[in-house]
Amino acid sequence: MRRFSSWMSSGAPVQEKDREPPKLSKRAYGYVKEGERMKQIAELSANQYSKDNPDGVVIAGIAQNSILQEELADYFNAHLELKEQDFSYGDSISSSDRLAHALNALFKTRFNSRVDLKPDQFVFGGGLTAIIDQLTSLVCDVGEGILIAEPYYNGFNHDITGRSEGIPVGVSLKDFDDLASPATLDAFEDKLTELKSQDGPTIRAVILCSPHNPCGFTYPRETIIRYLQFVEKHDLHLFVDEIYALTTFANPNMPNAPPFQSILSFDIGKESGCDPSRVHCLYGASKDFSVNGLRIGVFSSPWNKQFMTAFQANSIFMKISSASDALWSTLLNDRDYLDKYIHKNSRELAATYAHSACFLRANGVPFREANSAMFIWMDLRKFLRTKTDAGVVLSSQQAQEDDLAAELIKAGIFIAPGQIYAAPEPGFFRLTFTLRMDYLDVALSRFKKVLDARR
C-alpha cells in the first residue's frame, strides 16, 4: 500500500485545467467550425415556437414541410407493421426488395420513368446527406471538385467536403434573369475555362438540383438536355437531385412553368448524345413525404453497374432502419392514400405559398415566383441598415445581412440568410413557407414587425 501511495503522490500534481485534451486527427479539427454551426441549429430547434412555447422561435428557415405532419403521424401510427425479417439485416445491406419495388412503381407512375428498376439498382442511405457524402468519395479524390449553379442548397458544402474532402465549386448565374434557361450552361463552360487557366481544382461531376433549392423552380427539358451534353463533352458525372420531385404546385403567376421532368424519363443517349453511364438519380422521402426524421435517401444508377457495385460496397455505413423502410413502403404501396396525399399536399402547398406571396407583395418585399419546393427567395436588400440601434456602424453588406438575420431571430422568427446559399450578394433570404397555417401567420406577423421598424 505504501508503494502504491508513493507512486500516486510522486511528482507535481496535474491540475485538470492544465491537461491537454487527447489529440484528434487533422480532419477532426477541421470539423469544429461546422460543429459550431450545428450547435446553433440545435439551440434554435430546442426553442421552437409551439402552442406550449409561444415565446419560442418560429423556424421558417429549414427545409421541412409540416403542413400534413399531423395527418401523416396518424397514418403511420395506424399502419406500422414489422415482420420477423425486419429485426435482421433484411434481404440486402444496400437496398430492400420491399422498398425497391414500391419505389419502382412510384417512378413509373409519377416520374414517367422509362427504366424498370430492380432492387440491385438501388442504394438506400440515411438521407441524401449520407448518399452525397459517399458519392463524392466515389468520383472525387481529395481536392477535386463538383460544379453547382449558384445559389445552391447549403448542405452540399458539408456533404461534399465533410469526409470525402471534395470541393463544391459554385457557378455564378448573376447575369441571368432566368436561372432555368439552357443558356446558363454557358456559365458552366466559362467556369471550367477559368479553373483551367488558374490551376483550379479538377472537376469530376456536376450536381443538378431539380426542382431547385433555394429558388423553387422546375427546369425545362431543354436545360436538362444541355446539362447532359455538358457532362458528356467534358467527361463528367451528373448527379440529378430530385428530392423535391413531387413538391410542386400550381402558381397562376407562372402559367408557362414547365412540369417537373425526371432524369429517369429521358432517353438520354437519343435525346442528348450523352453516355447514360455518367448519369445518376438521387431521391428521398424527406421532402415529398414530410418525414425528415425517417432519414431515407435513395440513389440509383441503372446505366452503370460498376458504379453501383462500388457504392454497394460501403453501403453498410448508412443502412436505413427497417422501421423507416416499412413505414415508407406501406405508404407507397397504399395507392389510394398515396394519390390522395400527393394531391392534398400539392393543394396545401399552393395555399401556403399564395398566402406568403400575398404578404410579401403587401409589404413591398421583392421575391422570385416559385412553383415547387418549399421556399420563397426574397430580396431584402432595401431593409438592410448601415448602423445598429446602439450606433455601431455596419461597414459591409455582409455585416448588414448578419444584423438583419440576428434581429429576425430576436423577434422570434428564423429565416435563412442568403450567404449560406452562395447568393450573388448580401441581402437575399430564403423563407420556408411550408408551415401549418396558424404557425405561418405567427411567423409572418413577427416578420412584419421587423420590416416595419426598418422602413
UniProtKB/TrEMBL annotation:
<comment type="similarity">
    <text>Belongs to the class-I pyridoxal-phosphate-dependent aminotransferase family.</text>
</comment>
<dbReference type="GO" id="GO:0030170">
    <property type="term" value="F:pyridoxal phosphate binding"/>
</dbReference>
<protein>
    <recommendedName>
        <fullName>Aminotransferase class I/classII large domain-containing protein</fullName>
    </recommendedName>
</protein>
<feature type="domain" description="Aminotransferase class I/classII large">
    <location>
        <begin position="42"/>
        <end position="446"/>
    </location>
</feature>
<dbReference type="InterPro" id="IPR015421">
    <property type="entry name" value="PyrdxlP-dep_Trfase_major"/>
</dbReference>
<dbReference type="GO" id="GO:0006520">
    <property type="term" value="P:amino acid metabolic process"/>
</dbReference>
<dbReference type="InterPro" id="IPR004838">
    <property type="entry name" value="NHTrfase_class1_PyrdxlP-BS"/>
</dbReference>
<feature type="region of interest" description="Disordered">
    <location>
        <begin position="1"/>
        <end position="25"/>
    </location>
</feature>
<dbReference type="GO" id="GO:0008483">
    <property type="term" value="F:transaminase activity"/>
</dbReference>
<dbReference type="InterPro" id="IPR015422">
    <property type="entry name" value="PyrdxlP-dep_Trfase_small"/>
</dbReference>
<keyword id="KW-0663">Pyridoxal phosphate</keyword>
<dbReference type="InterPro" id="IPR015424">
    <property type="entry name" value="PyrdxlP-dep_Trfase"/>
</dbReference>
<dbReference type="Pfam" id="PF00155">
    <property type="entry name" value="Aminotran_1_2"/>
</dbReference>
<dbReference type="InterPro" id="IPR004839">
    <property type="entry name" value="Aminotransferase_I/II_large"/>
</dbReference>
<dbReference type="InterPro" id="IPR050478">
    <property type="entry name" value="Ethylene_sulfur-biosynth"/>
</dbReference>
